[in-house]
Amino acid sequence: MFKSPSNKLRLGLGRLGLAVLLVGTPLAAPGGREPPLGSAGGTQAAGRLYAGYWNAMTARAPDGGDACEGAPGRGCKLAHWADWQALIDRLRGAEATRQLTEVNRTVNRVRYRDDQDNWGQPDYWAAPREFLARGGDCEDFAIAKYHALRALGYGAEDLRLLILFDTKRATVHAVLAVVLDGQVLVLDNLRGAILPLGDLPHYRVRYSLNERSVVRHLPRNP
């Protein structure tokens, strides 16, 4: 089961950027061969790559810059930002399961867009305003949910972006994990239902990260 990093692992960003840690609880199911994650592979370089993506996204997060730049005629909709802010205001003080359900459902309505088509890059982690305007791929859905829940008062220690290998689809995927009442719940752009991570044995977590740290999760021994 996924566990929030200990205090020892909770390193602040400050001016140094996101820290990379190559330790963690083993989240993957035993057995099976998995391809490397992106060009960096399942190494320390991959953790640094994800930290770099996160830090670049965070730098753009306050306003997303000109989210529609270079996207004329591609359905770029800055008006979605106002809807997003209204959602946050409406959910303040609501019961936790309602917050998770509505955030997951609302974000999942955004159009899926491949990074190469959307940004002309093989991998681009969009800030929420960019994602809402232009759509995005799996990690962009997870990042938007992360920011929504942080705005609703959830602590960073209870939120982790999971980068995983989906054995059913034989592909790398990203979701948001939320620790609530002792359970690790998965908010996924592939489904409306919010399920415990333990109910998704085909999800083999390789890395988890938030604004404080990147953690590599080693496979369990067969």
What does this structure look like?
With 222 residues, the chain is an alpha+beta fold. It has a single domain (19-64, 76-216), classed as C8orf32 fold (Roll), CATH 3.10.620. Helix content is 31%, strand content 18%. It is built from six helices and seven strands, in the order E-H-H-H-H-H-H-E-E-E-E-E-E. The chain has a seven-stranded mixed beta sheet, with helices on one face. Strand 3 (171-180) and strand 4 (183-187) form a beta hairpin. Helix 3 runs antiparallel to helix 6 (138-151). The longest helix is centred in the first third of the chain and has 17 residues, at 44-60. It is globular, with a radius of gyration of 17 Å. Residues 1-42 have low confidence and may be disordered.
Keywords, please?
222 residues, alpha+beta, C8orf32 fold, seven-stranded mixed sheet, 7 strands, disordered N terminus
Quick summary:
The protein has 222 residues and is an alpha+beta fold. Helix content is 31%, strand content 18%.
Q: Please tell me what the overall shape is.
A: globular
Structural class: alpha+beta
Distance between the termini: 16 Å
Physical arrangement of strands within the biggest beta sheet? 1-7-6-2-3-4-5
Q: Into how many domains do the coordinates divide?
A: 1
**Number of separate helices:** 6
